[in-house]
Amino acid sequence: MGLAKDLKEFGYQVYFTGTKKSEKLVKLNGFEFIPLFENWFINDEVELDSNESLNFLERLKSDRNIVNHIKKFISALIETEDRQFFDLIDQIKPELILVVATHYDSFIWGLLSYKSGVKTVYLHDTLCGSFMSGAPPITTGIIPNNSALNKIKIYFSWGVYFAQRGFQDMFYGRCIKSRLGFKYGIDKLCEHYGYPISMVDTSTDMLAPKLTFPEMVLCAREFDFGSEDSRRYYIGASVHIGRDEPGFPWNMLPEGKKLVYCSLGSLEYLSREKRIRFFGIVLAVAAGYQHYSWVIALGNGLSVNEFKSVPTNVVLVNYAPQISLLKKADIMITHGGTNSIRECIKFGVPMIAFPLGFDQRGNVARVVCHGIGVCGNIKNISVGNLNDLVQTVMNNTFYHIQMRLMKKRFENIDNEKLGLRLINSILGISEMGVS
Questions:
Q1: Using CA atoms, how far apart are residues 350 and 329, in angstroms rounded to an integer?
Q2: CA–CA separation, 294 vs 253, rounded Å?
Q3: Are strands 215-217 and 119-124 parallel, antiparallel or unpaired?
Q4: Nearest alpha-carbon partner for 334 in 366, 304, 373, 307
């Protein structure tokens, strides 16, 4: 949203499009949203990994239904359904398309954009990369260094990653048909849209094959492990601090106390029982720090009433205004999602991170590498080891100094508005503005 705001202020007309689930957020932030393929994604229920609360057989059935639906959708696109996208392009006549490269559908949006003939750029809100980058897969906690042994370790980590992905595609995709498969549809989609298959990059840890578009990354280059890809541009965090946030009982936070904020994000990577255990441990640790205020956001599926004897210095809620709280926080206990990390850096808040899924191990490896936080292990968390982590970050000024330095680097990049300048360069627009 931050990049969209910069573009709008410069004079660009900015449209968002996609499935309807994004509409509310986009409109709340003052942008126009045009839904596509509503007849295929009516209730936005077609999303893999969104049914963590189901048991194995229920989830298997649900995933099969979702996979079958997506396969039918891809077939329909090839037949005539893609006309919706091209009609929209004819209607609004964009000069540039930004494809958010997070999920498998980015491959489809990318091919549609390529076929339309409009200049296209990937927008990465993760730090996924490719084998050729020299960095380890985002799913690992490996921190690169210049040793030969480390380089071998990174090389083999990619081999393991590709082998695991191949096995999962074979087992889940072909045998029990509960997964789409990383390479599903490449041949027929590329043939249909006239994209050379030889130019599709499958040596990536993205959730989709990658096309040869320029790439903008919502991060500072100094935070990442580095990339040897000349098409990859780091444009800063682009945190939208004016976004709409949930209400909060601010009167329950005393003035003058330092603040610890805890949230594991909006996706339910842990079972209900594991989340209850985790937050119970956080509450137990918080009770020992009465000179700090604590805010704990439980997320979906848990009730505040399930936790008895909540310490008086703790505010327990389901949803919290993260931006507003980070402005006041001294430490954040987080799952290590890219958005939370960028926001912590924006406000200079050191982290205690418990990576849970997908890219979070790689994200947190970067946090540890740069000394802006520490990493915990969710599998063996206890009151004792969480307390040790809290003590480490609270009392060691190294983490606070390193975070101030990283914050300054991000601020410098954000002030340069590199995303806006890159888009102007691609479109041949002067710095004076859009007429």
A1: 9
A2: 9
A3: parallel
A4: 373
Distances (CA, A) of 195 to 87, 124, 155, 321: 20, 21, 29, 43
Per the listing, tokens 């098409």 go with: 231
Residue with tokens 């997964």: 179
Interval 359-369: pLDDT, tens = 999 999 999 99
Output DSSP code: residue 210.
B
CA 2/CA 152 separation, integer angstroms = 39
DSSP 287-299: TT-TTEEEEEE--
The DSSP symbol for 376 reads -
Q: pLDDT digit string (tens) for 24-65?
A: 888 988 899 999 998 888 655 445 444 455 677 887 888 888
Contact by Cβ (8 Å): 317, 299: no
Cα(21)–Cα(45) distance, rounded to whole angstroms? 9
Rounded Cα–Cα distance for residues 435 and 426 (Å):
16
The gap from C-alpha 357 to its chain's centroid, in whole angstroms, comes to 11
* Cα distance between residue 89 and residue 91, in whole Å: 5
Superfamily of domain 250-412: Glycogen Phosphorylase B; (3.40.50.2000)
CA dist 361 and 136 (Å) reads 11
